[in-house]
Amino acid sequence: MLHASPLQPPSQLQGLVRPQPVTGLILTGGGARAAYQVGVLAAIAQLRRDAGATQTSPFPIISGTSAGAINAAALACHADDFDGAVDGLLHLWQGLHVENIYRADAFEAVKSGARWLSMLSLGWAIARWRRSHPKSLLDNAPLRDLLGKYLDMGRVEAMLEGKHLHALALTGSSYTSGQHVTFFQTHHHVVPWLREQRMAVQTRLTLAHLMASSAIPFIFPAEPLELEGVPEWFGDGSMRQSAPISPAVHLGAERVLVIGAGRMKEPEGRRVGVNDIHPSMAQIAGHALSNIFLDALAVDVERLRRINRTLALLPREARTATALRPIELLVVAPSRRLDDLAGEHQASLPHSVRAMLRAFGVSGKGRAMSGSALVSYLLFEPSFINELINLGMSDTLAKRAEVQRFFGWPARAPQMDPAALRRARPAGFAAGV
Questions:
Q1: Which residue(s) pair with 223 in the sheet?
Q2: Per-residue pLDDT tens over the stretch 89-125
Q3: Phi/psi of residue 284, each to 5°?
Q4: What is the C-alpha to C-alpha distance for residues 225 and 217, in angstroms, rounded to an integer?
């Protein structure tokens, strides 16, 4: 509610309500880890229903990267029905198996990945390697088929026209030029931003942008996209992403909800491991992917918090003189180590995938598992996905008061427990999965 001032008597302020700030949603990458985001969204949908705040979408601005781009696009395509979109995501993710994302049977032909490894390491295989010219370790053609069947990217334009959505941004990284590019679609006037090695392009978003943004380096093949009229090869948007929150702010967000995929809220303390054994290729690959997917977000969150603290210390005159403005921030991130969680569910992977991972040095299980970080990005199986969804729900409900305060919802307890939040009816884009 507005406060009275000498120029505006209280009688003139009755009935006036301060407009809600524009809310942006940041969904980052992480392969199978992105199932955690769906659990967070399901809990938010329930808290929203409990508050009776179901008139409009809670997220007019949505920014997605990598697997988070897929979740972002699903929400944007159904911005006129947030509950239905979340139900659809739940139904889709809970029905996923590895073969829906990448071809698991491909590893049988190379005998547990040994031939793939030998091509990299043995001189006699160089000629054969050049002839076969493999694009990636895995073929994600099934993912393209899945998204083409259940996501109509043309609906983004309809949602913008109907004012159910303000903007959608999807981010990719160009192998060709080295540019980090945010492709965005909106009906509002936005000056495309240009920073060192990152830029923004306004366009109509398509399935190709989703495939490019979610193309995990080395794991999935690059995707061709046009950049300023010139075709370039793009991969996962998490690569070289120095400011994951930036697109939503540029598009007009005044507050942002960030859903992480690890590290920011995980338990502190050193992990116990075997220190006298050289790390396997799987450990090194998992460490590299975690750096790509997780670290930039944690750094950007801390940067935004530091800017907010600095702005709060400035006098009002100094604040108005700067282009910087405080951005309200809420972060929801896993309370458990997702690497350890993946180690507990590795056995649910198809035999061919487990054989390939063993060739790369994945061994053991649970917390003692070597290479569990790499596994966590590829474990598209119900046992792991459902654990992530439940964890996302529980972590969000544990922050219930913060969520309610962030959105300005009345503080009411949810009417259902986390397990019951997964509503049975298929809805939205996933009907018929």
A1: 234
A2: 999 999 999 999 998 775 443 443 444 455 545 444 4
A3: -65, -45
A4: 16
pLDDT-derived band at 393 (thresholds 50, 70, 90) equals very high
Rounded Cα distance between 6 and 167, Å, is 38
Reported pTM = 0.84
The number of beta carbons lying within 10 Å of the beta carbon of residue 364 is: 13
Instruction: Give tens-digit pLDDT for 188-241.
Output: 999 998 887 789 999 999 999 999 999 998 889 999 999 988 999 999 988 877
CA angle 257, 258, 264 (to 5 degrees): 140
Integer Cα distance of 14 and 2 in angstroms: 9
In the predicted structure, residue 170 carries a pLDDT above the cut 80: yes
Q: How far apart, in whole angstroms, are the C-alpha atoms of residue 301 and residue 156?
A: 28
How far apart are the C-alpha atoms of 215 and 221, rounded to whole Å? 6
Task: Please give the Cα distance from 32 to 385 (Å, whole number).
Answer: 7
pLDDT at 264: 62
**pLDDT per position as a tens digit, 310-320:** 888 888 777 77
Q: What token pair was written down for 244? A: 């994951």
**279, two tokens:** 């790390």
Phi, psi of 407 (to 5 degrees): -90, -10
The whole-angstrom separation of Cα 373 and Cα 216 is 14
Residue positions counted in the chain: 433
Q: Distance between CA 49 and CA 390 in Å, rounded? A: 19
Q: Which residues pair with 329 in a beta bridge?
A: 256
Helix 35-51 with 82-94: angle, nearest 10 deg: 150
275: pLDDT strictly greater than 70: no
Q: Collect contacts of 265-268 with beta carbons under 8 A, ≥24 apart.
A: 265/331, 265/333, 265/334, 265/335, 265/395, 266/333, 266/334, 266/335, 266/336, 266/337, 266/338, 267/335, 267/336, 267/337
How far apart CA 406 and CA 403 sit, in angstroms, is 5
Instruction: Tell me the β-bridge partners of 61.
Output: 24, 167
In angstroms, the CA 421 to CA 417 distance is: 7
Q: Supply the pLDDT for residue 431.
A: 47
